[in-house]
What does this fold into?
Amino acid sequence: MIDLCNQEPVPLLSVDAALARIKAAICPITESETVDLKNALGRVLSESLYSPINIPYEKNAAMDGYAFSSQDINHEQPFTLTLAGISWAGRPFEGHLQPGQCIRIFTGAVLPHQADSVVMQEHVRAEGEAIHFSAGTPAGQHIREVGEDIKQGGLLCGHSKKLTATDLGLLASAGIYELAVKRPVKIAFFSTGDELTALGQPLASGKIYDSNRYLLSGLLTDACYSVTDLGVIADNKQMLEDSFISAAKIHDVIITTGGASVGDADYVKEILDRCGDVNFWKIAIKPGKPLAFGKIGSCYFFGLPGNPVAVIVTFQFIVAPALKQISGVPDLKRLQITATCTTNLKKSLGRQEYQRGILSQDKNGDFFVASSGKQGSNILSSISRANCYMILPAECANLQAGDKVKVELMLGAEII
Ligand code: AMP
Ligand code: MG
It folds into this structure.
């Protein structure tokens, strides 16, 4: 069924076309800064990092046990070696292992040069200094070889990697304590609307609380972003224009919410046309059709719709990929899966819809998704309950329970 309210004089830009236009318009940040390893979590590497050392640095034991040289034993027979000393983690055995000798060794302790095998302590019988090994004791076991993790000069983390906790561990294992990362993306955001009331104030008639700045400050929490909250700007052309122009001088990106549509108090598009270049301002997406993207000087702007759910959806699917590109992160895809929908879904032709759902997995590993409730772009409760979006393409109409749908988890969500 065609929804006549959705009819546009010119066809709307598809989500994919909008993303392609953003991608073509954006230049990633090139400037770098040096940070300590402990402050590097979530930052984007501006150089590839190679290991200055072999890891492990020296041959060491993977188990608590006894180390010996396989040269002087016959594996088929039980054999007895004489205990010559101990190698502790951090305090190596300093002697020379003679034929017929073994040493007590602990996990992580360095092996003497002559030794090439470790046997677990549970598999020997110790009688004073005589250590008895059973027949069939394997040679060459439980050893960590020099450079088996990373060879000296080997790649640790590639250029443009957004560093995870795991990466910090890897880099620390190579002794790296300082690194060059992309400087943070400077992002300013503000809400627009005469109806917006600050938290802590009573609500007068016709007013609402400003949800969007709280949403955005949460969504923009990322080590790659340096964020400025510019508050609420009234529906006043001059104040809006001044705010855009001054913010554009000192930020890489401006994100606004509200006033992006065609109502009498919606000035964002008009002002951006005057002080910048609007690349597009409407997309075939639901929720979130009015979305202005472009530049003021060298600053990118995203004029998002006012309704909070439209802000969340357009952030995840349009703004977040753009911010990643600006911060210099490679264009990696987020996981999408196919699930069986267990509720009927209302869907009009013409716009790609992101409906809120609750994704679960049964004991066979199959995925099921149900609508999380009312889908109005003002309804925050159903998106707060949801853990995923059901992505319904523009050309798709109503769906019946049992139909398959494409699903993507919300940022930071888990399934039940
Ligand atoms: P607009 O695009 O300005 O016409 O806003 C569309 C709808 O979103 C209206 O119902 C606004 O009241 C609402 N809205 C705009 N900004 C906010 C905000 N910061 N927090 C909550 N709702 C908002
Ligand atoms: Mg408004």
